[in-house]
Amino acid sequence: MSANTGTPATPATTDATPVIATGREIRLVSRPLGAPTAENFELVTTAIPQPAEGQILVRNTWMSVDPYMRGRMDDAESYIPPFELGAALDGSAVGEVVVSRADAVPVGATVSHFAGWREYAVVDAATAIVLDTSAVPAQAYLGALGTTGLTAYAALTEVAPVREGDTVFVSGAAGAVGSVAGQIARKLGAARVIGSAGGPVKAKKLVGDFGYDVALDHRAGAIADQLAEAAPDGIDVYIDHVGGDHLEAAIANAKVGARFALVGAISGYNATGPVPGPGNLFQAYVKRLNLRGMLINDHFALFPEFTGRAIGWLTEGSLHTEETVFEGIEQAPAAFLGVLSGANTGKMLVRLA
Ligand SMILES: NC(=O)c1ccc[n+]([C@@H]2O[C@H](COP(=O)([O-])OP(=O)(O)OC[C@H]3O[C@@H](n4cnc5c(N)ncnc54)[C@H](OP(=O)(O)O)[C@@H]3O)[C@@H](O)[C@H]2O)c1
User: Fold this and answer.
1) Domain 149-297 class in CATH
2) pLDDT tens, per residue, the chain with 353 residues
3) Which of 159, 262, 266, 349 most suits a substitution to test ligand 1, by most atoms within 8 Å of the C-beta?
4) Which atom in ligand 1 lies closest to the alpha carbon of residue 344?
5) Cα 181 to the chain's mean position, in Å?
6) Which of 41, 131, 141, 170 has its CB 3.0 to 4.6 Å from that of 333, i.e. a possible disulfide?
7) Does pTM surpass 0.85?
8) End-to-end CA distance of the chain
9) b/e per residue, 240-258, with b = 16+ CB within 10 A?
10) CATH 3.90.180.10 spans which residues of the chain?
């Protein structure tokens, strides 16, 4: 990553007429071919605009780093627009309101919004959500209490609903979604929960910390063989975060009528050509499988139900969560490269202040 200046950010005042201050942001300067590198990003110090009527100025304290952002680095049509070259990236963040020109969102409130990858953000107040941080820290709303946790919940309740006594397989099980998905599957009645992750340290955490009965290590051998051994009677539900060999293994080891939530396919995100589908897809009709893709945006109506349950789980201590934290806006590209390569356990976050 290149940095055009090392000037530190100057905090804005909480005054109604604040001094224009500067802040740092991360811009996309080139699009990757294959795996992204630090050179695709630039750290820039820029003036902070004055919030207009109805807007707030937020000092971002945490930002989320997510695998889907890899797709936005490409100039390709998708469900969300690509990042623009020469402009700051964006994504989920939380922060503290330092200037408000909107009655509904006072100075001092903690809010979530979508203008991450920068230290200060001017946001339309109507698009910001005021957070209750009395029982949980603000960054929980980027992880277990945010779309991350909701993704696990929606996958297991609406897309591939878990039934009492099911055997559930989750790939990417030590990651942000996966680390809560196994525990939620258990709460919903799963009898046996199998997770896969990369390396012995993560495999140990799956069983020791994230409530899985069995851990598969995708770096240690063929995932299909490991899954066959872990689920000799087959799986009822598969939450797919990886695609590729994991999806093929899940199809091979599925029971008749098994339900699959196709949540992500990170094994192909850096591919430079078409990614082959599972070689055994014909088994999907032999076994009458239900393979269902999902985008979390279609499940936002579940938020109140999910938040109510998840806050209870977090405060009573029955949902274990972890974070991998990079410090400072200048580390955001490294955090992003890290989430694609497995540097995280639990939610990957950048702390900005
Ligand atoms: N559909 C939706 O609306 C939605 C919403 C949220 C997330 N997602 C998707 O869900 C998945 C998980 O997201 P997340 O935010 O929880 O990320 P995450 O799991 O915290 O981070 C990604 C993880 O993927 C694993 N990985 C990378 N390359 C791999 C490979 N070739 N084979 C196996 N594992 C690999 C790495 O863990 P290991 O060290 O274990 O390999 C890495 O830590 C992603 O595919 C994401 O795009 C989709």
Assistant:
1) alpha beta
2) 433 333 334 444 444 445 658 999 999 999 999 999 999 999 999 999 999 999 999 999 999 999 999 999 999 999 999 999 999 999 999 999 999 999 999 999 999 999 999 999 999 999 999 999 999 999 999 999 999 999 999 999 999 999 999 999 999 999 999 999 999 999 999 999 999 999 999 999 999 999 999 999 999 999 999 999 999 999 999 999 999 999 999 999 999 999 999 999 999 999 999 999 999 999 999 999 999 999 999 999 999 999 999 999 999 999 999 999 999 999 999 999 999 999 999 999 999 97
3) 266
4) 43
5) 12
6) 41
7) yes
8) 20
9) bbbbbbbbbbbbbbbbeeb
10) 2-133+322-351
